[in-house]
Amino acid sequence: MNYFIKRVLEIIPVLFIISFIVFVLVFVAGDPVALLLPEDAPEEAVETLRTSLGLDDPFYVQYGRYVVNMLQGDFGDSFRYGQDAMSLVLERLPATLELAIASILVAIMIAIPLGIWSSTKKNSSIDLVATGAAVLGKAMPNFWLGIMLILLFSVTLDMLPVSGRGSFSHLILPAITLGTGIAAEMTRLIRSSMLETLSQDYIRTAKSKGLRTGIVVYKHAFRNTLVPVVTIIALQTSTLIGGTLITETVFAWPGIGQLLIQAVNTRDMAIVQACVMVIAFFVIVMNLIADLLYQVLDPRIRYK
Amino acid sequence: MNDILLEVKQLKTYFFTEDGIVPAVDDVSFNIHKGETVAIVGESGSGKSVTSLSIMRLIEEPGKIVGGEINFEGINLNKVPRMKMREIRGNRIAMVFQEPLTSLNPVFTVGNQLAESIKLHQKKSKKEAREIGIEMLRKVGIARPDKVYDQYPHALSGGMRQRVMIAMALSCSPKLLIADEPTTALDVTIQAQILRLMRDLIKELDTSILLITHDLGVVAEMADTVVVMYGGQVVEKADVFTLFKEPKHPYTKGLMDSSPKIHEWNEELVSIPGTVPSPFEFPIGCKFADRCPHVMNKCKEEIPSLIEIRKGQEVRCWLHSEKVVDLE
């Protein structure tokens, strides 16, 4: 429990450091005013806007103001939308989380049975097909797979919606698009760690007790491969929350990825800050969950 | 001691590797009577572990039992369906392995692993299995068995873990216990304790033991009958007293000479020259020919057969088969 409190408190300085890095990067990236006004805007107008936005203050004043506001939960207003940046990001967050979780579930549902199966039938035709499928899944670019899925299921077969977010059916194609790539990687990982586990002495012990193959494989072997599996699930979920821009674009999915890229292009500093903070927060939380799960999954792991 | 519990008859287990066929066990026969302890002795690579795994039908690819019979209580284990074999494994025949540190699953409690076979073979509820399990832990000399029952293997010492393994193996009162180097990985003081424990328990449960070892001290302590293996074949078979008093095969003699004896401290410890060759490099004739101090031309050309030179002692050696011929 102490460990848990310690880990939660650690989130605060990490977020602080991240906010500073992002602030510096956006600061050196250039002046947003140039993009906010037309090219032929008079010099005074540019100056007025810059002053009113506080952009002519020195770096430390701007950063100080930013920190003070941030601590009050205020990331400033978007230059572009004129709204509070954080609420814009939080508005998009459910869509991103929904897609991330659905994609991970797709990956898990493919990878766990396939990985275990190919490990127990090593070098058989099933294993070769699974390996081939994994290579293919990893090699296919998301934008291409997404477009092909739309062509087949939405245009030709007219079974699923082309794009947008709404009902469950909207979720299927983007989740499959993102899930297959992750499933490919996960299958390989599960296969190799299962192969290692299956050669352990305790598997021979389990067999010598007369247990059914299913119990030997799923109880005794698979439980021992869950630590790497949880690691990859946590890592991939973090990645999905941060960067699914291409898939979001292909399916017009209103997630954080699109918002962030637009904000970077228009130097919409407040949104970039808010997006990065939210993404960073989820990455940290996913890592924390994984670390806590390790203890549950492997009794030899104990943190002080 | 006349009732045969296990009869291994001309067992052949080959490994079909990419480099060729390895006859890891080649025409091995021996019997285990009820209540008897039979030891298989040999160096690494002699085929003793493969013999024990063959009896359990736990030979993994690319290995395969290619011939012979393994008759246990009147059933040929080599022929029984997998379902039936699972009912025998862990129940009628149980096994203790060499590595107590890695033979228990690290992510399940001792109790979970102990109760597994009790629930499976004795059809007990979880609660009953717990009671039986704790009782077994007490029997193998574990202090505070109810506490250890809920502990994970990593919290126990090697000796404790081997006791747990023995408790697990004996929990269904098997008729045959196969112990594959049960004390090799343990400290000397713990070894003696574990051996004593096994001896006491098998007497109580009327279990026979097939003991796989390379340690002649353990053999002298435990065994009634000894089977000496080399290169996948039985080279000598005798009761323990005869074997220690009058070893006939040069390999058996070599093994005896290379183990230290406490009362012959001034004698230099000898070793058998050379090492066990790789499976593909065994001589055509007697497999021991290259390392044998008494090697003759015949040894390099023809494999001697296992011949009974007196009641209860069999030897696979041209030296002794000549004598038999002479006598006739």
Automatic annotation (TrEMBL), chain A:
It holds the Pfam family BPD_transp_1. Gene3D superfamilies: MetI-like. Keywords: Cell membrane, Membrane, Transmembrane, Transmembrane helix, Transport. It is found in: Cell membrane. The chain crosses the membrane at residues 12-30, 95-116, 128-155, 167-184, 226-251, 271-294. Signal peptide: none annotated. The keyword Transport applies. It is a multi-pass membrane protein. Belongs to the binding-protein-dependent transport system permease family. PANTHER family: DIPEPTIDE TRANSPORT SYSTEM PERMEASE PROTEIN DPPB-RELATED (PTHR43163). This is ABC transporter permease.
TrEMBL record, chain B:
It is a peripheral membrane protein. It is found in: Cell membrane. The lineage of its organism: Bacteria, Bacillati, Bacillota, Bacilli, Bacillales. Belongs to the ABC transporter superfamily. This is ABC transporter ATP-binding protein. It comes from Oceanobacillus luteolus. Keywords: ATP-binding, Cell membrane, Membrane, Nucleotide-binding, Transport. Residues 6-256 form the ABC transporter domain. The keyword Ubl conjugation does not apply. PROSITE patterns: ABC_TRANSPORTER_1, ABC_TRANSPORTER_2. InterPro entries: AAA+_ATPase (IPR003593), ABC_Ni/Peptide_Import (IPR050388), ABC_transporter-like_ATP-bd (IPR003439), ABC_transporter-like_CS (IPR017871), Oligopep_ABC_C (IPR013563), P-loop_NTPase (IPR027417). GO terms for molecular function: ATP binding. SUPFAM superfamilies: P-loop containing nucleoside triphosphate hydrolases (SSF52540). It comes from the Bacteria.
